[in-house]
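Figure S4 source data
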Amino acid sequence: MSSAVIFDVDGVLVDSYRAHLASWRRLAAEHGLEITEAQFAETFGKTSRDIIARFWGGDGLDERGIRKLDERKEALYRRLVRDAFPAMDGARELIDALHDAGMPLAVGSSGPPENVDLALARLGRPERFGARVTGLDVTRGKPDPQVFLIAAERLQVEPRRCVVIEDAPDGVRAARRAGMAAVALVSTGRTREELLAVRPDLVVGSLRELSPAGLHALARC
């Protein structure tokens, strides 16, 4: 049986770094705060809850306050990407090649379902994915492996037969902790050196470097 591929969304299917930076900075400005790009880069890939705790942590926010900030930020992000969607180079072609090769596909993201649905719709490939896991499905963010383990369960594929494509060190760690092979993609805001430091099975500079045969060979079947 063929191995499965689980995609992260931000930085893998969507070149979303600039849109997330802009939306966080706009949200911060609405509250009299400032977030520098260097500060944002330290948090990129973490959950919105973690980022809010980082920048609004001293404000004594309750659950409702955190949720309102989160929802406002994500609405700002979707507004930015809806009309000028920054698809990752090679994403559509890789999805199609994997699907044509009969490899089950899933997305595993800590983002809200609205963001994931928007990304798959703008890529024009929602039907290619047999499972979607979003921030609403998990209680623990990466590097905890929960998101990828749920994706494998929904695909009905053993974790060892899954390959994860990630762009964040914590995402690579999560894949490894799940017992899955990990491909690290050098995306905007990432460096090859920081990804190599967490020991993925493969580091690539573009999705165009990947193929069904190569990804299947990485799975621990």
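Figure S5 source data
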Amino acid sequence: MATSNPRRKVRQDGTVAWQARYRDPDGRQRAKEFMKKVDAERFLATTRADMARGDWINPADAKRLFADVAEHWRTTQVHADTTAAAVAGDLRNNILPAFGDREIGRIRHSDVQAWVRRLSERLAPATVDRSYRWLAAIFRLAVNDDLIRRSPCFAIKLPVKADQKVEPLRREDVEALLEALPARYRALAVVGAGAGLRQGEAFGLTVPNIDFLRGREIRVRQQLKHLAPDPPYLGRTKTPSSVRAVPVGDTVLHALARHLEQFPAVTELVGHPSGQPELLVFTDDRGDPLRGNRFARVWGRARRDAGLPDGVTFHDLRHYFASLLIHKGLSVKAVQEALGHKTATETLNTYGHLWPDDAGLTRRAVDEVLGPCVAARRVAER
């Protein structure tokens, strides 16, 4: 418990100081000196109140370097491999240069806001938002571990993300891409446009996960991952909800069957979660697992030959697939399940603008059901 009165102390240089002495919750004697008695009294009163509330912070803990706390946070998190790589990159490039050598207890709200502003001048809003989330998580750990009393990450103004609505490719665009792609990668694009698989999911598709006969479906159980310098491997899907079975018709199944005839599956990777070697459906010209940077060059040439803009990526085939389902009247729930979204809200936030508006549906429902009855009555009254 804090003492009630500061002690007067004469220093070696003849100046007078006031020593605030107290015992911490562990019983250790502590002291802090002030030039003014009133400041020492205020400190003791605050310390006494903090101890009573259980909010007392060890001054030595607040002096720990941010870099040390950040490394402790990083090594204790349960992250997927790709997320862990993103965390390491953001820490190295965006966070530690600004805060690494500073005491964690001396980083203020204004420091964080100024850091966000500087990042916003050179990075996209999504990247700034991601780096800020890691920073805020590190400070939450510091609060939970009683290193600091309060996180400086509150009421921070982040850059506004542009509200860009998905504009699906047209059928002619997809046809042009299929024509421009080399034969080895054509079925890969068909799987993207006809089953909505993400690029990693398509790269990681194995022969056992295609049901050509009974179920007529593609089972998404894994995705191909690559974290340089390690070789590619089959790992978990983006989220647990990404695990799904996508019904596919003859267009996709015939494309896959023809692909396997032309380019027999010979490359094996250990499947996830089977733990057994499985044959990859898609490989590169050397028979190796597909790598994003190499495929990007193939895709870029095909995109240019098809006359499509630079921003068109493999993921746009997934958007095209979603637009087909919506155009054919499938429910939000059905589209959500086919895409592997966690919630229907996620599906609506991405594709809600593609569904027919309620006013149009209302008019059509009345005209289609009630219209014939009214028309028949008009005929009868003539």
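The mean pLDDT is 91. The CA atoms of residues 220 and 244 lie 5 Å apart.
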